[in-house]
Amino acid sequence: NEWLAKDRGDRSIERTLAARDLSKEVPYTITIVTGDEANCGTKSQVWLGVTGSNGQTDKVRFWEAKPDTFARGKEAKFARGLLSIDKPVSIRLGLNTQDDSKSEDNWLVDRVVLTNTASGESFLFLLRSRMGHDSPDGAMSREVKLQNLERYLVAVSTGAIQGAGTDANV
Question: Minimal CA–CA distance to 116: which of 76, 65, 81, 74?
Answer without folding.
Answer: 81
